[in-house]
Amino acid sequence: MEAAAPHTPAEPTPPANSVELTVTSPEQMRELGRRLAKLLRAGDLVLLSGELGAGKTTLTRGLGEGLGVRGAVTSPTFVIARVHPSLGDGPPLVHVDAYRLSGGLDEMEDLDLDVSLPESVIVVEWGEGKVEELTEDRLQVVIHRAVGDTSDEVRRVTVTGLGTRWTATDLTVLSA
Ligand SMILES: Nc1ncnc2c1ncn2[C@@H]1O[C@H](COP(=O)(O)OP(=O)(O)OP(=O)(O)O)[C@@H](O)[C@H]1O
Ligand SMILES: [Mg+2]
């Protein structure tokens, strides 16, 4: 009898379509948003995570510029979601700050956004564990303040495409 093959741990996840970038200023973060916008189309969901002040809204501002939508992207204190209609014929940007959203998707649906989510680009800050059920295809962006001997403005950004929507997309264009 053959010796049992050494136990190989199961693959935790299928190979992720992922890039890691270093961003060194708020302006570069906006530029990353503008580049990201070129990859997005109606129905896409982008989840942004990272601690307070990481740069999630700054990235979204660039996204709004790249998509060519109306109104400045801000982080209003009392508004959970805001719709920015396209100035052209592109999809609207729905910007959600889920920080105060505890009930997940149901609560989000209750927001009565008056837009069709499949026809919008949806960007959600603080959405982990809350909005994943919207779609299994999503772009996950994680922003970390770099630690160590770096300036206050250095961020490490990981962009991961999940689901079939993203398998054929080359995310390395983001670091160009
Ligand atoms: N590399 C950088 N990228 C983005 N923002 C930066 C960077 N360096 C410094 N900043 C500053 O950090 C702050 C980021 O604020 P922003 O509102 O974008 O963060 P946030 O992640 O949305 O925070 P919150 O969790 O409160 O919503 C801004 O004041 C910005 O100028
Ligand atoms: Mg924010």
Automatic annotation (TrEMBL):
Keywords: ATP-binding, Cytoplasm, Magnesium, Metal-binding, Nucleotide-binding, tRNA processing. Residues 1-20 are annotated as: Disordered. InterPro entries: P-loop_NTPase (IPR027417), T6A_TsaE (IPR003442). It comes from the Bacteria. It is found in: Cytoplasm. NCBIfam families: T6A_YjeE. Required for the formation of a threonylcarbamoyl group on adenosine at position 37 (t(6)A37) in tRNAs that read codons beginning with adenine. Is involved in the transfer of the threonylcarbamoyl moiety of threonylcarbamoyl-AMP (TC-AMP) to the N6 group of A37, together with TsaD and TsaB. TsaE seems to play an indirect role in the t(6)A biosynthesis pathway, possibly in regulating the core enzymatic function of TsaD. Belongs to the TsaE family. PANTHER family: TRNA THREONYLCARBAMOYLADENOSINE BIOSYNTHESIS PROTEIN TSAE. This is tRNA threonylcarbamoyladenosine biosynthesis protein TsaE.
